[in-house]
Please model this.
Amino acid sequence: MDVYSQIISLAKRRGIFHPSYEIYGGEAGFYDYGPLGALLRHNVQNLWRNFYVLGEQCLEISTPVIAPYEVLKASGHVDKFLDVVVTCRKCRSAFKAEELSEEQLQALECPSCRGPLEKGRMNLMFETEIGAVNRREAFLRPETAQGIFVNFPLLYQYARRKLPFGVVQVGRGFRNEVSPRQGLYRLREFSMAEAEIFFDPEDKTHPRFGEVAGDQVNVIPAGGEELRSSVGRLMEEGIINNQALAYYLALTQRFLLAAGIDPAKLRFRQHQREEMAHYARDCWDAEIHTALGWIECVGIADRTAYDLTAHMQATGADMTAFRAYGEPVKEKRRRIVPDMAKLGPAFKDRAKDIVEQLERMEPPPEESALQVTLEGERVMLDPEFFEVVEEEVTVTGKNVIPHVIEPSYGIDRIIYSILEHNYVEAEKEGERYVSLRLPPSIAPVTAGVFPLVSKDGLPQVALDLDRHLRERGIMTFYDEAGSIGRRYARMDEIGTPFCVTVDHTTLEDDTVTVRFRDTTEQVRVPRHRLAAWIDENIRPQ
RNA sequence: GCGGGCGUGAUCUAGCGGUUAGGAUUUGAGCCUUCCAAGCUCACUGCCCGGGUUCGAAUCCCGGCGCCCGCACCA
Model:
């Protein structure tokens, strides 16, 4: 059996993940996480939070999965988040538009039977409705990002009106894929962790870039060959467009390596212009090599001001940030000042309309008549009704729509990759022996706790110890069934890094053995020190 | 969606028109057991769903659902 099948089989057998609704025949594109999988995913997401919320000081929020029509209309998803599907009316073959050549599309002729082709589009969003009586159209969100963008004004305020700042959300996204496949790779409901970092559009530098500049990464620039270099160098050579993108490339690599991804099987590929999502100007994917080939697990996109501008236009909400100049600047300004004493008597109730129009106009270079529109009629307004004044104002800064750098992580794909990269098969007395060499911090169970034999009072001591560890926040698994070797094997297969055994020596000197998953080595640790010892050994070295 | 392959206990599989669907692993109970899947006894769990052909279907045919491979795409 190939690695992929081994993992799928192991995942199902040991409660990591399996297809949803199986007793009803299954539903493609949906997967359940079992007891161990839920723990594993929790740990992976927590590790991610360690990077983004603790490390980067991003603000974590949580917004609804259901979004009203207008939100996703404004964001462009209603119109652009489509797959163009071409079907033949005669032989009923269906193609994605990208598969066909220009000529075939022009001719609208089926490549297999020459029948007439029909162009159709399919939106990838799940539709739903809000309300019982007045049903309003809505969608399940295709990304968590929009929930962050629509909250920008409040978040900007919360971040004390300073750029850059980041906001993250960990949650579910939904895409009604045409053809879900390959287990956790393409799901219709999936877990994502997204960060939206708001930068001044003219300053995409990162204050801590220096810390990562030396990190070596594998990259494939658009239209170029794969190469390995430091992110600092890639920046200097212009291969990566700005520091912010480069920084998050490096940070993403650090996160993935901490999660147990094999560095040799990780690369960053820049999107070609035509494969970019509708909202992105530049995008780098972190791709991980697995039995399924290179799979995209993280997208790091420069969304520019696209989303904030869209929501600002749709709602009129202020999505700008204030950029203070170093020194206040004195600016000369010319302004039209209406003369109300004359406008009022002359135009009566239409005077207000004229004033509003004048406010939006460019001041004329000299005293001359201005054209206004009154009830659909063009009227020339003599210079006597207004004055053009020149004034000096002090400008302390200006309002800009921030640019967004978005690292977006597909948690399920990453979890599959972690399992595959840490799956180790060995021979043990002619039998296949499986270990998952997960980093201790993400392993679903941290410590197995066993009595060496189930007599002589050892189980009671071990049970007490198990309880003690759990009270200290350590996920344990107590087991007294079968030989000690079998119990170690059970723990190795689910990636438990440490096994603690209570033996007869424990009764004499109050120490226990701790056995390491990857080396099977053992050390004796005083029982009262054990929780602290485990905490210290969980940390990545 | 298209083409090809495949659906048998939790997992891996035998069975290819004819008794009560067999094995291995796992799991549970018990015996045994002083550190790496030891042994023994017992036990639980299965032919993806629906229709058809047939005296008789896990097996042949049709449809659905699911999985895998290829074509292709946003995490």
Summary: Residues 98-103 of chain A have pLDDT under 50 and may be disordered. The domain at 445-538 of chain A is CATH 3.40.50.800 (Rossmann fold).
